[in-house]
Amino acid sequence: MREFPLTLSRFIIQAQSEHPGASGEFSSLLTQIGLVGKLIAQDLRRAGLINILGTTGDTNVQGEIVKKLDAIANDDFVKVFQHSDYVCALASEEMEKPILLPDNWSQGKYMLLFDPLDGSSNTDNNMPLGAIFSVLKHSQSDCSPTDGELMRRGTEQVAAGYLLYGSSTMLVYTVGQGVYGFTLEPGIGEYLLSHEQIRIPDKGKVYSVNEGNYHKWSPGTKKYVDSLKVADKPSGRPYSSRYTGCLVADVHRLLLGGGIYLYPGEADKPDGKLRLLYEANPMAFVVEQAGGKASTGTSRIMDVEPKKLHQRVPLIIGSRLDVEQAEAYIQGRA
Description:
- The protein has 8 helices and 15 strands.
- It has 334 residues and is an alpha+beta fold.
């Protein structure tokens, strides 16, 4: 008889049983993130048939045009978690201020930060999309969380992960004990364990970067990317270029096959484009747990001290040796 793969809920229950003091709230939180993924995946499957493509006409706190699916995905996260007893604060890339849930302060142990729809420029073109989440623990049950409590270093995350919407829907996450991937089986509406203890190769053959911004990069970044195109069989070069415009999709490829993703600082944007709390920190946690590395080019991403809720940061992430080589070029050591 063929063995049936572990479902997400069964996997979480088994993991919980290994911690006798666990109350179950954290397990429920992960299950609810899976539910959000199902809701968004359902909308994406029908996106060309119902009026949810295009823009809303609004701009978000980042000054970016809001796609209709951005707003829908953000609403899905909020609706699912607003009435949960185990989350006391929600912060999103799409919202200027966090949503505080006063009814949950006494029992809600966790705070959820998220990018509800990563790669939203792909929404009208049927290309890969994602969502990214980061979980922090609320330290004081007798009072409301503050913006300051949400602004924590990546090392303080208790869980992080992403949803990937492509040819299949996947949930990939870590709680600091390795990285696991689950694929949604639409026929039964369950996530099944498809990737156990994911390990990123120490070195890859793929780089992912928006080369349209080449003229804005620092000399070290230009020199590094140029070096990847030089034919040199002993070092495995030239690398292949792959870039989808969706951080989740590009990093997921590297997580499985190795390589490097870069969104460096630019002349007019020295802090880069990606958000530290909603994108860089959670993706860094996942990649580090898989044996990779994540850097600003000069320091570890998860050691960056946040100063603002929507702070941006340069991101170089992927295989350990590739990131270390990029750092050497950026810092002028190569």
